Structures are given as structure tokens and as C-alpha cells.
């Protein structure tokens, strides 16, 4: 089994044959005639023909011949999109169905550290996803995951230390090191963090430095990370550009940073800017799109269409050193999009290595797939009773996690709490709800408890096993009985999403692949997600994507206050919260 990026079908053949086609001495396999080629090197449009041979572009110009011709009649031909930072697991889709969601939209290469499944199943989980991608018209470049686990403040299902990182870096198609999330550890010079960075020295090293600035940013960049996708403010993004980082402008399901940061893309800075999604749900993929939706939004916000295309093609290819990607040029891979219009950019046809793989939003390839049985039995929750969810007060006030709309950062507040029967209870009138994180990997019995505000639930509870990054069970609710019911349903399904009220489960979505993904078709998973979101709304939840928001409340490397199975965490300090 190959553990690297999926190779194009048929390879490139001999260099001599490709050069013969380029010289016009032999016919190519495919000829695009009368194309308006988007040149990502010079940000211009060329009206020309394009010859393809064995999955590569042989040449541009008039007079070529090929066994098959496609007359584009003046339509645009542009390189396939590259998503430079995405966690494909966040779509809730197993790899073949994920490809069904993104390839017809024009995404033909993704860069992912797969740390979601890595935190559950380690290197074996990474290998399973890579193997599933091998037959697909989607090139997956693995960034060796540096954050399994992200911190020592939570319990994960696996650990990848410097030795495991070195193993992954030796696999084919691994450009570098995935986002270094433990920024307090890097800034403080912790040996384990620096050892992982040193293992990837000389390769791209992705960063993750939310809100880091000044001398702390100097220290973080000096350690080695050269990109960041966590900027939420203009000033933050500008400082990171000034300190030499590549700015990944993120527009995902819950992370909406494009509008705030887009003006940082100028004629001077654009080579160091990328558009990425980070996390995008199956509903968004089905109903709105993938990278194409981000590009369209950037154009609507005023970015020149040719510049927008550069930010999702040649720029990520250059940063990640993906030779032969990101352009329509001799010797480059024939990963191509045909579109009628650049401003309202929608892929009409998509070609992978010169082979038609999608037309008018429909995939033309087999999207079936299987998984190792070990990935469908990953839950080891120690039995507990509803009484384990009781939260005793330590005083009149208690820390509360405040959701920030459109962001994955949170605010940290201390609020007077409602107490009944000697226990802290939800206060729905003030939108203060109970929050719980239940350890599910090792049967430790750990249950972290806290409070959260921003969901708006008037009754009931939500629970999910998709909880960045260790993916324990996270639940929020107005009632302990409903919290318990939702958590138990998630565990019984071997993972998924659940909504409960009145002690009964109203709706659920099974995600049995490592507790993160479904084997069902894209449309079925999107419908299931829609059902649990509608059920949440019926309970008063006012968030458009409540389960995506919930998943980040357990991520202790995103400021400011988060909850793990071991307790409340001040992410900025990288330490547990103490109060009385």
C-alpha cells in the first residue's frame, strides 16, 4: 500500500514522448481548442489551444493535434483548485464521498494533516485515509500531524511523538509538518514541540498562532512555523505577514475571516496569501460549494478574479512546493476546470490528469469505499450515571465560555450562577447552559464540566463525538437528564451527533468511522445533519451550525476559555483554570 499522495492515472509516460507532443511531432491524447486560459503566473487570460498527453499539459498554442478534441468555444480553462489547509474529517464524510463533494466544485488537491482521525487512531488512521484516496481523482497531500494530541490538557486516543512524525515525513507525498498548535509550548521552548519542528526542518511547517503578537510572535516564528490560518483581525494578519508568515485566509463553516482579512491582499502581499476553508461541513459542500464558494465570495468582496484564482492555485502550490500544480503550463498536471464565467465561477467540467471526472456538479467517478473494521469500534466510555454530570459551586460565580458568532475563538467570563439542590444548574433566561466533555478513548471515566453561553437553548441538549481535536464526547444542554440521554446515544452509535429533550433522543446522525465520519452518501449525511440542526433549532438554538460551534468548545489551543475531559483550560496560558 502506498502511503503517499494519490498518483494520477497512467503517470506521465516517458519524458521523450511528452516532449515530442510539445514539439508538435506526435499527437496528444486530448486537445482543448479555443480556450481562454487563465495564466496564474502573469494574472492574464490567453486565447489559445492546450494539448494534453498522459495526464500532463504538453503545450499551449495553435496547430496541435490529438486523438480527442474538445472545443471550448471561448470558455475559460484554469488549473484545479488546491485547498492549502483543510481537515477533510470535518465534512463528516469518508474520503470517497468527500471527493464527491469537492471534485465537481473544482478542488483537485488538498493539503491536510488528518490530525482529527490521527487523534483517534494514530498512524493507522492516517494510512486508512490515504489508502482510501488512492483510486480517487483527488490528490491528498499529508502534512505530518504535529498535534496528536494538541496539548497535555486532554485525553486523546493516540500519541504521535517526534519518532512517529519522522516516520510520516518519510512517506511519499508528505510536504512538511502540519499546524503546530501548541503555541504556548513552542514559544516557551518546550523540547517535544521543538523536536517535532526540527524533524521537518527545511520543509514547509504550518503554524497555528491565534492572537499571538509582539515578542511572543517573534519567538513562535523564530522556532520555524511559516504560515498561519488563525488570524481573525486585520491587524493580526498584517503583523504576521510582516514577520514573514504566509497568511491563510480562512472561510469555513464556523470560521468566517475572509471579509475582515481580504484587504490585506495587495499587489505587494498577494504571493504570500492563500484562501483556505479549514473546516467545511457536508451541508456547505452540497448546498454552497467548496473552494469555489470562497473564491466567489472573495470576488464579490472586490478581489480581482484572476488574483482570487492565484490564491487557490499557484500560491499554495508554491508554498507547499507541489511541483507541477497550480498552473496550465507545459509539464504541469492536467488538473483542469472549465468555466463559462470567472466572476460567478462555477465548474462546468472538471478534468483530473486529463480525464473528465465531473460535469455540471455531478461526479463521474466511483465514490464507493470501505474502511478497516478497527475504525468502527473506537469508543471505550466508562459507564456513568446522570449524577456524574452534577456541578457543585465553589462560590457565587463560575467561569463561562462565551461563544463568539462567526469565530472559533471564545471569550472568558465569570458570571453569577443559578444554584438548585446544592448544584449549579442551567439558567436558560440568561443563556447559560451546562457543558460536559466525556472521555471516550481509554475508559478513564474523566468528565469535564463547565458552562457555556451563546447557544440559546431553552430546553434539551446537544452532543457530539466530533470535538476538536481529541474528539471526546462534548455536550451542551439545559438539563442533566437530556445531557445524559444525548451523550449515551452518541456512545451507542460509536460516534455521531444527537439532540435530546424530555429525556428522549429527538434526532441523531451516526458517524461510526472513528466517531468522526459516515460511510453514507453525501446527500444522506447532509440530510442527517440538516435534521439534527432543525431539531436543535426547535429547542431554541439560534446558531446556524451548532454542532460545528460545539466541536470547538473542546479545543484547548484556541483562546480563550475551553473545556476538555480534564477540566477548564485557559488556552492563552496553556493551563487549567483555577478559581474559587
Write the layout of secondary structure elements.
Blueprint: H1 15-22, E1 28-39, E2 44-53, E3 56-60, E4 66-71, E5 76-79, E6 81-83, H2 95-102, E7 107-112, H3 115-133, E8 139-142, H4 162-169, E9 177-180, H5 183-187, H6 191-199, E10 205-207, H7 214-223, E11 227-228, H8 234-242, E12 246-250, H9 258-261, E13 273-276, H10 282-287, H11 291-300, H12 305-310, H13 314-319, E14 336-339, E15 349-352, E16 355-359, E17 362-363, E18 397-403, E19 410-416, E20 418-420, E21 423-425, E22 432-438, E23 447-453, E24 461-464, E25 473-477, H14 480-492, E26 496-501, E27 504-510, H15 522-538, H16 546-552, E28 561-564, E29 567-570, E30 575-576
Parallel strand pairs: 1-4, 1-5, 6-7, 7-8, 9-10, 11-12, 12-13, 18-23
Antiparallel strand pairs: 1-2, 2-3, 5-14, 14-15, 15-16, 16-17, 18-19, 20-21, 22-23, 22-25, 24-25, 24-26, 26-27, 28-29, 29-30
Helix pairs in contact: 4-6
Structure description:
The protein is an alpha/beta fold and 580 residues long. Helix content is 25%, strand content 26%. Residues 1-12 have low confidence and may be disordered. It is built from 16 helices and 30 strands. It has 3 domains: 15-74, Urease, subunit C, domain 1 (Roll), CATH 2.30.40; 80-326, Metal-dependent hydrolases (TIM Barrel); 378-576, no CATH class. The chain is globular, with a radius of gyration of 24 Å. Strands 1, 2, 3, 4, 5, 14, 15, 16 and 17 form a 9-stranded mixed beta sheet that branches. The termini are far apart. Strand 24 and strand 25 form a beta hairpin.
Amino acid at each position: 500500500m502506498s502511503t503517499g499522495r494519490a498518483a494520477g492515472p497512467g503517470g506521465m509516460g516517458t519524458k521523450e514522448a511528452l516532449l515530442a507532443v510539445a514539439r508538435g511531432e506526435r499527437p496528444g491524447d486530448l486537445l482543448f481548442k479555443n480556450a481562454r486560459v487563465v495564466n496564474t503566473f502573469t494574472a492574464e487570460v490567453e486565447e489559445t489551444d492546450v494539448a494534453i498527453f498522459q495526464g500532463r499539459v504538453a503545450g499551449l498554442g495553435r496547430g496541435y493535434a490529438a486523438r480527442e478534441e474538445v472545443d471550448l468555444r471561448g470558455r475559460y480553462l484554469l488549473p484545479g483548485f488546491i485547498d492549502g489547509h483543510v481537515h477533510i474529517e470535518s465534512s463528516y464524510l469518508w474520503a470517497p464521498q468527500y471527493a464527491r463533494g469537492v471534485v465537481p466544485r473544482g478542488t483537485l488537491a488538498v493539503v491536510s494533516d488528518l490530525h482529527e482521525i490521527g487523534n483517534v487512531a494514530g498512524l493507522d488512521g492516517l494510512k486508512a485515509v490515504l489508502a482510501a484516496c488512492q483510486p480517487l481523482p483527488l490528490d491528498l497531500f499529508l502534512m505530518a500531524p504535529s498535534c496528536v494530541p494538541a496539548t497535555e490538557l486532554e485525553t486523546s486516543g493516540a500519541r504521535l511523538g517526534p519518532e512517529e512524525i519522522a516516520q510520516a515525513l518519510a512517506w511519499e507525498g508528505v510536504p512538511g509538518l502540519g499546524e503546530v498548535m501548541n503555541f504556548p509550548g513552542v514559544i516557551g521552548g518546550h523540547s517535544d514541540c521543538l523536536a517535532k519542528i526540527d524533524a521537518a526542518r527545511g520543509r514547509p511547517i504550518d503554524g497555528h498562532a491565534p492572537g499571538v503578537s509582539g515578542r511572543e510572535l517573534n519567538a513562535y516564528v523564530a522556532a520555524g512555523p511559516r504560515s498561519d490560518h488563525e488570524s481573525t483581525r486585520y491587524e493580526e494578519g498584517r503583523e504576521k505577514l510582516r514577520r514573514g508568515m504566509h497568511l491563510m485566509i480562512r472561510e469555513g463553516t464556523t470560521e468566517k475571516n475572509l471579509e475582515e482579512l481580504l484587504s490585506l491582499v495587495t499587489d505587494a502581499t498577494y504571493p504570500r496569501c492563500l484562501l483556505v476553508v479549514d473546516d467545511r461541513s457536508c451541508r456547505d459542500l452540497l448546498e454552497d460549494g467548496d473552494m469555489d464558494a470562497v473564491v466567489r465570495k472573495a470576488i464579490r468582496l472586490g478581489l480581482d478574479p484572476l488574483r482570487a484564482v492565484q490564491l487557490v492555485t499557484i500560491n499554495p502550490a508554491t508554498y507547499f512546493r507541489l511541483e507541477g500544480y497550480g498552473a496550465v503550463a507545459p509539464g504541469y498536471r492536467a488538473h483542469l476546470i472549465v468555466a463559462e464565467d470567472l466572476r460567478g465561477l462555477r465548474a462546468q467540467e472538471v478534468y483530473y490528469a486529463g480525464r473528465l471526472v465531473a460535469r455540471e456538479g455531478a461526479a463521474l467517478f466511483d465514490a464507493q469505499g470501505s474502511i478497516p473494521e478497527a475504525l468502527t469500534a473506537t469508543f471505550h466510555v466508562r459507564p456513568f450515571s446522570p449524577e456524574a454530570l452534577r456541578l457543585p459551586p465553589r462560590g457565587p460565580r463560575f467561569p463561562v465560555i462565551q461563544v463568539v458568532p462567526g469565530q472559533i475563538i471564545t471569550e472568558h467570563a465569570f458570571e453569577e450562577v443559578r444554584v438548585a439542590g446544592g448544584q449549579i444548574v442551567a439558567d436558560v433566561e440568561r443563556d447559560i447552559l451546562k457543558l460536559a466533555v466525556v472521555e471516550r478513548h481509554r475508559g478513564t471515566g474523566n468528565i469535564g464540566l463547565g458552562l457555556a453561553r451563546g447557544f440559546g437553548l431553552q430546553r434539551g441538549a446537544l452532543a457530539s463525538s466530533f470535538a476538536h481535536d481529541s474528539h471526546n464526547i462534548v455536550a451542551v444542554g439545559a438539563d442533566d437528564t437530556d445531557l445524559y440521554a444525548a451523550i449515551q446515544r452518541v456512545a451507542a452509535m460509536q460516534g455521531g451527533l444527537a439532540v435530546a429533550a424530555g429525556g428522549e433522543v429527538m434526532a441523531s446522525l451516526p458517524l461510526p468511522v472513528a466517531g468522526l465520519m459516515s460511510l453514507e452518501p453525501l446527500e444522506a449525511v447532509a440530510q442527517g445533519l440538516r435534521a439534527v440542526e432543525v431539531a436543535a433549532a426547535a429547542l431554541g438554538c439560534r446558531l446556524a451550525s451548532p454542532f460545528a460551534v460545539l466541536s470547538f468548545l473542546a479545543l484547548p489551543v484556541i483562546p480563550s476559555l475551553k473545556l476538555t475531559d480534564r477540566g477548564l483550560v485557559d488556552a492563552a496560558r496553556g493551563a487549567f483554570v483555577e478559581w474559587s
